[in-house]
């Protein structure tokens, strides 16, 4: 017996000791108090329980009665989280039946023993438990309504407290949320309370009968409630029948005794009730197949839920005991089996909760469950959201219940056709889960299975062997939430921890402290075969993480993806044909078994489950295929368009099949070499190239189709050996290649394979694909010639598809395409000539090459010029007297500008200068320095540094009136840095340039200034403001084709302005003042100027222009300045300025200004 099994038996014996002493128990007051209390709050915010953690070493009277010793350690935060996550499931199930007068109090004792064990207990009371009664609203009789113990886990492991799932994924660690659910179920009522009668016999005291106990039946199909009526004694004895002998006639036995089989776990006892009977629907349940020990020595199938009985029979050092508190459904969370791959309750287990008195809507969690064997079923039971009363489905609306399962097949050898939708968006929910063995599930045409919540699985197979799954044409299976898997084939982890046993197809690994991982010599027959013998897909399958997922412990023999099927999402196989996840050998195979998954694209023999073949002869799949240790690809009777990467053992293309495109990484094994074997047709074009890491072998009747580009083949890449059998064909296609106008042929001596270690290719035959077989080109007119093709470009071949500024670029294409010289330009026209026949790609490419990033650069320069002009203004207030002033203003700004695209800049600046005030006259000289970091939709960097000098003059009280005039002039220089990216199709170009600008500006305003009060003035005004930006010519630089030559240009603005200025001041004791400006400006010029552009690629001949259009001609401006001047002449000011042209063109600047009078 392994150390893992020994630890497991200790846990079983501990739980038995709990329940067997209960008749002597009575709740006692505590002698000490728990030192830590954690509230348990539901996801809906209800505080429904408190966890009270025992102090280390403290003694409590009730714990001595229960057999608890003092706590040996403190609970950890991770363990508390795991406890809470286990509680949350029961809240989801029973929350609507929660009527407690106050939060439930639960006492928790942490222990140091490293055995991954836990336990829970609640006293029986009025045929339920104290926990159940308190939950339903009864006043608690004890201080605590339940008691939990939590040990440490096995050495080198931890309690896994991940979010609760349906299928375990805890690996070697032990699952804490699921463990807490298991233990809480006992406390809610799944407990058989036994005692010893006056004859020394294990018995049940009548006063301890609970709803659970009353629903139990013995091997003679009698309920314990009925048996209790046959005796006047206080105790009902549990009598073990010798498993080696036939059962005696009941008439010869005491009718007041309970009779069970004397076998490990398999007692012959079972649970029945109205709800359980409804779920089982007449099924007889066989006892579970134990992965340990003798699986044949079990009791007969029973018409209820099998309940465990005697345990530890035959184990050295352990005294057999009767347990009777676990539901022995195969691998269930509530079983006492050493292997469990459920983390939630099956529907029949939920039904047991209903039968012992809880009121809740079971159908929120399960659409339909099939527990029987050998049935043929057209299933019209669906799964959707439930109505508010929990009495009916809301058809068409997906369920949002976490952990929901639309269809569960528990039994074996069933043939189920699903004809109703299974729709869920709950976290970790599953459309259909299949256990048992040799089941056939078909998703019928027109049926939707969706599990689109977080971590959802459309269909999961998780136990058994030789299942079959068919997705008919017109059916769909999806799992589109984060981490979703459409079709999952996965036994999962052992909920107890894989060290207790890791099981799957041909897999039975156990860990022993002495010598580590080893494979069991014998495993159950149910694991001696592939989990899936055949998966056949005609319909639509789509998953976020994967369309198909095969776990390390699941062997899928055949996958057939038929023509017309639609798959989105990776195909992932982690199955290793040679070793298990823990490095052990597979076991239980026949000598000729080859544990390799065959992934077939196309057709095999038609399955009877699929009524009609697809009308399509093609399959398109563009995601990853991952199966480096156990997956091989075959393509048969279809045309596979593959745009992804396949990491597999080998690829075979059959004589009636075509493979077009894809990268194939072929993995060697101890049994085979990595080979791509072409017996049909392989197409490797520029648009869909084929790349092979491994060997390539082409049969004599097979062909390889290659693109002709500029008179040469575009070779296929083979990183390995390449062998062409004599007589095999090379087919030339024009698709994807550049060709001049006129007669086109191919140089047959040009390479057909590159990168190969060796090439064997003699006596090949060469053919040209006829013009009628070529795909449609948006630009080329191709006809056949005796050798090759005759190619002509249609009139306006490119410009007829373009609009707006893109048409200017397309006209350059018209004149350049047939005379292309450089490789880069030929590749461009090859892409355009073989793009979509509607010309959309041509318009996209032309638009991408128009230089939008340069227009964005101009917009940024203009915005920077406006910021500099605003920053150069420094007007003294009415509170500041005559004299000479120096000022400095560090400021920051953000600006957005929109012309071709949306540009955004962050600006840091420093402005300063000199102002002289004398009577009604002010004159100034200013300097402004700016540094800008920006970007736009078409440029990843638009950075600039600039320097400006400005002068201004203002005169008030003209001719002794209220009139005033103000003029200014600006001169500036900007050094810019432009980095833009051009991307379309598979083309990418990174472009850089360092343009420069010189600026000159003038402005003048005039208006009237009125004194409203002694210290407040108002001044309406009108004026003009304009500037010119001269940009010398420059050339962009790039490694591609998109860089442009830019002629010198002048950009300009002339703005008419209307505005009003407000000023105020307080003169004592220090001078405080404020200034505010509101203005509206209207751009007079039609646009800001233009760019004359041409490509640096000389075979893209011709030039074009772009205009810098205003986003809006209306501009609104506002500014505010407040300050105070000390008696020594130093002023400190805060100021903010904004300008608004549109939601995409605006600026905001702010700073602190210091002014000193000298």
Which residues form runs of ≥5 with pLDDT under 50?
1-32, 605-614
Main sheet?
A: 13 strands, parallel
Largest beta sheet: what is the strand line-up?
19-23-26-29-32-38-41-44-47-50-53-57-61
Q: Helices and strands: which structural class?
A: mainly beta
Helix content: 10-25%
Q: How many β-strand stretches?
A: 84
Mean pLDDT: 92
- Using only C-alpha atoms, the radius of gyration works out to 41 Å
The termini sit apart by 99 Å
Please report which band the strand proportion falls in: under 5%, 5-15%, 15-25%, 25-35%, 35-45% or over 45%: 35-45%
Shape: flat
Number of helices: 13
Describe this structure in words.
The relative contact order is 0.04. The protein contains 13 helices and 84 strands. Residues 1-32 and 605-614 have low confidence and may be disordered. A 13-stranded parallel β-sheet has the order 19-23-26-29-32-38-41-44-47-50-53-57-61, with no helix packed on it. The radius of gyration is 41 Å and the shape is flat. It is mainly beta and 1158 residues long.
């Amino acid at each position: 017996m392994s150390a893992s099994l020994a630890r497991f038996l200790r846990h079983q014996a501990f739980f038995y000791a709990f329940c067997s002493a209960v008749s002597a128990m009575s709740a006692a007051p505590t002698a000490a108090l728990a030192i830590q209390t954690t509230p348990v709050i539901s996801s809906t915010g209800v505080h429904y329980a408190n966890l009270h953690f025992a102090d280390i070493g403290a003694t409590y009277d009730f714990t001595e009665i229960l057999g608890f010793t003092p706590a040996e350690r403190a609970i950890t935060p991770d363990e508390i989280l795991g406890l809470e996550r286990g509680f949350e499931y029961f809240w989801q199930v029973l929350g609507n039946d929660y009527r407690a007068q106050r939060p439930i109090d639960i006492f928790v004792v942490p222990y140091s023993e490293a055995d991954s064990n836990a336990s829970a207990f609640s006293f029986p009371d009025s045929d339920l438990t104290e926990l159940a009664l308190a939950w339903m609203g009864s006043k608690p009789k004890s201080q605590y309504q339940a008691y939990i113990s939590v040990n440490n886990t096995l050495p080198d492991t931890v309690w896994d407290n991940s979010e609760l799932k349906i299928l375990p994924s805890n690996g070697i660690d032990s699952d804490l949320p699921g463990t807490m659910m298991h233990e809480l179920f006992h406390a809610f009522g799944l407990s058989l309370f036994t005692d010893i009668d006056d004859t020394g016999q294990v018995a049940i005291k009548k006063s301890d009968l609970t709803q659970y106990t009353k629903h139990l039946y013995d091997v003679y199909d009698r309920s314990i409630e009925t048996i209790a009526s046959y005796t006047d004694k206080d105790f009902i004895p549990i009598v073990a029948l010798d498993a080696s002998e036939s059962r005696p006639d009941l008439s010869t036995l005491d009718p007041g005794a309970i009779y069970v089989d004397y076998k490990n776990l398999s007692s012959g006892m079972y649970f029945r009730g109205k709800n359980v009977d409804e779920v089982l629907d007449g099924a007889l349940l066989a006892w579970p197949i134990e992965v340990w020990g003798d699986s044949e020595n079990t009791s007969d199938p029973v018409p209820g839920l099998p309940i465990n009985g005697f345990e530890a029979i035959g184990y050295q050092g352990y005294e057999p005991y009767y347990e009777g508190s676990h539901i022995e459904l195969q691998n269930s969370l509530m079983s006492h089996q050493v292997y469990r791959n459920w983390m939630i309750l099956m529907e029949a287990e939920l039904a047991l909760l209903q039968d012992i008195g809880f009121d809740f809507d079971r159908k929120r969690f399960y659409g339909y469950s099939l527990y029987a064997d050998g049935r043929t079923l057209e299933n019209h039971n669906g799964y959707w959201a439930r109505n508010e009363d929990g009495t009916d489905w809301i058809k068409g609306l997906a369920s949002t219940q976490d952990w929901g399962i639309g269809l569960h097949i528990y039994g074996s050898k069933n043939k189920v056709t699903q004809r109703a939708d299974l729709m869920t968006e709950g976290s970790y929910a599953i459309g259909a889960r299949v256990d048992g063995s040799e089941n056939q599930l078909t998703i019928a045409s027109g049926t939707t299975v969706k599990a689109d919540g977080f971590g959802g699985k459309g269909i999961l197979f998780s136990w058994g062997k030789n299942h079959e799954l068919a997705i008919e044409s017109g059916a769909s299976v999806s799992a589109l939430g984060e981490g979703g898997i459409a079709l999952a084939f996965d036994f999962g982890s052992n909920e107890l921890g894989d060290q207790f046993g890791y099981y799957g197809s041909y897999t039975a690994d156990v860990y022993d402290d002495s010598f580590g991982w080893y494979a069991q010599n014998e495993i159950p027959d149910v694991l001696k075969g592939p989990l899936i013998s055949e998966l056949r897909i005609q319909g639509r399958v789509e998953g976020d993480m994967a369309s198909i997922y095969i776990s390390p412990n699941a062997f899928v023999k055949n996958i057939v993806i038929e023509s017309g099927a639609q798959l989105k999402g990776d195909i992932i196989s982690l199955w290793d044909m040679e070793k298990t996840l823990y490095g052990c050998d597979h076991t239980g195979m026949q000598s000729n078994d080859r544990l390799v998954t065959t992934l077939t694209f196309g057709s095999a023999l038609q399955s009877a489950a699929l009524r009609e073949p697809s009308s399509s002869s093609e399959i398109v799949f563009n995601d990853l295929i991952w199966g480096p240790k156990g997956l091989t690809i075959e393509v048969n009777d279809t045309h596979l368009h593959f745009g992804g990467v396949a990491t597999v053992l080998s690829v075979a293309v059959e004589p009636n099949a075509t493979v077009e495109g894809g990268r194939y990484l072929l993995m060697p094994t101890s049994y085979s070499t990595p080979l791509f074997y072409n017996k049909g047709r392989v197409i490797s074009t520029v648009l869909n190239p084929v790349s092979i890491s491994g060997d390539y072998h082409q049969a004599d009747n097979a062909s390889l189709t290659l693109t002709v580009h500029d008179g040469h083949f575009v070779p296929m890449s083979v990183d390995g050996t390449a062998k062409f059998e004599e007589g095999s064909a090379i087919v030339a296609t024009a698709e994807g290649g550049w060709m001049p106008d006129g007669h086109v042929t191919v140089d047959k001596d040009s390479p057909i394979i590159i990168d190969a270690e060796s090439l064997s290719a003699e006596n090949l035959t060469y053919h040209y694909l006829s013009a009628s077989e070529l795909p449609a080109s948006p630009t080329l007119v191709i006809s056949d010639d005796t050798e090759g093709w005759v190619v002509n470009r249609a009139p306006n071949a490119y410009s007829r598809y373009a609009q707006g500024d893109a048409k200017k670029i397309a006209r350059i294409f018209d004149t350049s395409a047939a005379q292309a010289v450089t490789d880069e330009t030929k590749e461009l026209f090859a892409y355009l000539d073989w793009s979509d026949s509607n010309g959309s790609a041509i318009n996209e490419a032309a638009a991408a090459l128009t230089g939008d990033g340069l227009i964005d650069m101009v917009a940024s320069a203009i915005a920077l010029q406006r910021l500099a002009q605003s920053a150069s203004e420094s007007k003294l207030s009415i509170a500041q007297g005559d004299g000479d002033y120096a000022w400095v203003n560090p400021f920051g700004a953000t600006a957005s500008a929109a012309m071709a695209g949306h540009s955004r800049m962050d600006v840091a600046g420093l402005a300063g200068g000199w102002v002289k005030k004398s009577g009604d006259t002010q004159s100034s000289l200013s300097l402004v320095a700016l540094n800008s970091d920006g970007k736009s939709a078409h440029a990843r960097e638009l950075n600039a540094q600039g320097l400006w000098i400005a002068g201004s003059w203002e005169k008030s009280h003209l001719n002794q009136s209220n009139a005033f005039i103000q003029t200014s002039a600006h001169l500036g220089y900007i050094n810019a840095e432009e980095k833009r990216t051009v991307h379309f199709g598979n083309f990418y170009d990174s472009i850089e340039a360092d343009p420069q600008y010189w600026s000159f500006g003038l402005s003048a305003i005039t208006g009237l200034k009125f004194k409203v009060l002694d210290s407040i003035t108002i001044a309406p005004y009108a004026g003009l403001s304009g500037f010119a930006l001269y940009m010398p010519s420059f050339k962009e630089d790039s490694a591609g084709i998109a860089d442009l030559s830019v002629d010198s240009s002048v950009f300009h603005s002339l703005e008419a302005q209307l505005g009003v200025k407000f000023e105020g001041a307080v003169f004592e004791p220090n001078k405080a003042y404020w200034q505010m400006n509101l203005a509206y400006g209207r751009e007079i010029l039609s646009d800001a100027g233009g760019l004359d552009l041409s490509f640096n690629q000389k075979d893209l001949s011709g030039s074009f222009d772009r205009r810098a259009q205003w986003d809006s001609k209306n501009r609104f401006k506002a500014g505010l300045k407040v300050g105070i001047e000390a008696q020594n002449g130093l002023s400190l000011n805060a100021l903010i300025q904004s300008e608004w042209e549109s939601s995409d063109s605006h600026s905001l600047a702010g700073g602190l200004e210091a002014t000193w009078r000298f």
